[in-house]
Amino acid sequence: MHKLLFAVVISVAFLNAQAQAPAAKSLKVQSSWPASLTIQDHLRILSERVDKLTGGSLKIEVLAAGQIVPPFEVLDATGKKVIDGWHSISYYWVGKSAAAALFSGPPGGPFGMDHMDYLGWLYVGGGLEMWREFYQNDLKLAVTVWPAHPSSPQAFGWFKKPLKSVADFKGMKCRQTGLNAEIYAKLGQSVVNMPGGEIVPAAQRGVIDCAEWVGGVEDLRLGLPQVFKYHYTPGMHENNSIGEFGLHLDAWKGLNPAQQAAIESSIKDAFITWITRWQRQNADAMEEMIKKHGVQIRRTPPDILLASLKAWDEVAKEHSDKNPTFKKVYESQREYASKVVPAKRYMFPPYSFAANYYWPQEGAGSSAAAPKKDAKKP
After folding, report:
1. How, if at all, do strands 244-248 and 85-88 pair?
2. Residue 100 has pLDDT above 50, yes or no
3. Residue 318 CA neighbour count, 13 Å, CB half
4. Residue 287: what pLDDT?
5. What is the pTM for the complete model shown?
6. How far apart are CA 92 and CA 180, in angstroms?
7. pLDDT digits 0-9 by tens, 237-262
8. Nearest-angstrom CA–CA distance, 30 and 323
9. What confidence tens digit (pLDDT) does each residue in 203-249 have?
10. Rounded distance, CA 334 to CA 23, Å?
11. Cβ distance 63 to 20 under 8 Å?
């Protein structure tokens, strides 16, 4: 009798606890990416991690480009509460303010910074506060933001014919976005802005002669080897680009402290989880491009890279002269880089030093992704 009574009491307590447990929160977050791309995988990784860390009390509903709003409208849709958050990259918003491009890792790093340097500027050098203030004060959007997928360094681009020098750009119609469009317009390209999902159809119709997307696995999944055969890498326009994950302030403030901490931790966890996987995916993709699709992967001529940096300096000065926020953020990046980049050059050996010892590379060519059979073993 006592055992039966005890079992009844436990059952009632369990049912009461379930009834009193708060319902799981769900946040609708849409990206600017097609569902098939690995950039979208980053949002999935983030969502899974948040779910696990919160014990299921917070869920992020992962939505791909176009499921609720068009790819380039996710920021405004979040501001209007059409969705709870977005996953994109800030240089898509240069139509609102050119300063937006500075929060995605602008050309050259900027100032030679790599991913870790740039994250240092964000988390240590005050950059993240500037980013949030920019959205809230300059763009008048009630949102908050974090750095997301480090989809770089990116390739220079895809072309239908070989490149020799900057002179080859004259008259080319090329897909470019953000302030990069201004850079390549200065170098002679006729630039066209479009979402990634429109690149292949545009190339097939002859609307564009060349295109920049990401490189490696992203470009393979998008289908670029189907319409272009010359792939040039690296580029200086997005050698350090980092995307963004953001939420409406009401959605963020509606979370309890543990849920907020879970998002903060998941942001950093997803950064490492995604990029380590992405490195291998890119290597496999380059090999497939060459062996299966006959793509010629060539090294970008140095004079083109140098010209793009010089053009960026001009673009940055033009916007600094007329946009106080742009100038403030860019000077902050310059000051931070002036400390960490020179110091890092002393401490870090050039990547190519040991790489060339074990995997010597003979200039450009379609065999760029394939290591030599006689590479030295440690």
Report:
1. antiparallel
2. yes
3. 11
4. 96
5. 0.86
6. 11
7. 888 899 999 999 999 999 999 999 99
8. 30
9. 999 999 999 988 999 999 999 999 999 999 999 988 889 999 999 99
10. 47
11. no
Cβ atoms of residues 50 and 62 within 8 Å: no
Summarize pLDDT for 263-305 with one digit per residue, the tens.
999 999 999 999 999 999 999 999 999 999 999 999 999 999 9
Identify residue 345 by its one-letter amino acid code: R
Backbone angles phi, psi at 265, to 5 degrees: -70, -40
CA 108 vs CA 63, 125, 167: distances in Å: 32, 18, 22
CA nearest neighbour of 258 among 266, 249, 250? 266
Q: Tell me the pLDDT tens digit for each residue of 26-49.
A: 999 999 999 988 999 999 999 999
* Partners of 59 in beta bridges: 26
Question: 206-217 in b/e burial notation, b at 16+ Cβ within 10 A?
Answer: eebbbbbbbbbb
In the block, tokens 């995997």 appear at 359
First to last CA, the chain: 73
CA angle, residues 73, 79, 83, in degrees to nearest 5: 70
Residue ranges in 213-350 assigned as alpha helix (H): 216-222, 249-253, 257-293, 302-322, 324-347
* Pair of tokens at residue 201: 């159809």
Strands of the sheet containing 244-248, edge to edge, are 58-63, 25-31, 85-88, 244-248, 143-147
Total length of the chain? 378
